[in-house]
Amino acid sequence: MTPSPRPCPRRAAGFTLVELLVVLVILALLAGVVGPRVLDQLGGAKVKTATVQIRDLEQAIELFKLDVGRFPTNDEGLEGLVSRPAVATGWNGPYLKGGVPADPWGSPYHYENPGRHAQIDIVSLGADRSPGGEGENADIGNWR
């Protein structure tokens, strides 16, 4: 009788701690490289969205002027594009579908008549919601 060979101990299925740590380090490095680029693109998209919305508001204000003969007053503001102002003969709105939009950061657009930079000013204060700033925090207006 020959003795039967001893079975080799089977390695437990799964990953070792070292393998998991290597994968986590690789994922962290990828997130460190790719993450900031993705966030920069997101910020740039918000700036572009604000610019497009300001152009749309400007066009609606031009239609208001064609019908009424003047731009909305500061008291009427951008709401004058959605609901009939008390003193606006010839108003044929609403000039915006769905109401006056907020800027991409959730703040209202600022309207001035007469404007400081143009005949009328429509301004988003950017991500920081305060005047001035650079990059995503910069003011975005219809005069740019």
Characterization of the model:
The protein is mainly alpha-helical and 144 residues long. Helix content is 36%, strand content 6%. It has one helix at 17-68; strands spanning 110-112, 121-124, 140-141. The chain has a three-stranded antiparallel β-sheet, covered by helices on one side. Strand 1 (110-112) and strand 2 (121-124) form a beta hairpin. The chain is elongated and about 115 Å long. 17% of the residues are buried. The model has no long low-confidence stretch (mean pLDDT 85).
Largest sheet: number of strands, sense, barrel closure: 3 strands, antiparallel
Task: Tell me the span between the first and last alpha carbons.
Answer: 96 Å
β-strand amount:
5-15%
Helix and strand succession? Answer: HEEE
Strand tally, please? 3
Helix-strand category? mainly alpha
Tally of contiguous helical segments: 1
**Rg computed from alpha carbons, rounded to a whole number of angstroms:** 29 Å
Helical proportion, percent range: 25-40%
Low-confidence stretches: none
Q: What is the averaged pLDDT score?
A: 85
Strand order of the largest sheet: 1-2-3
Shape: elongated
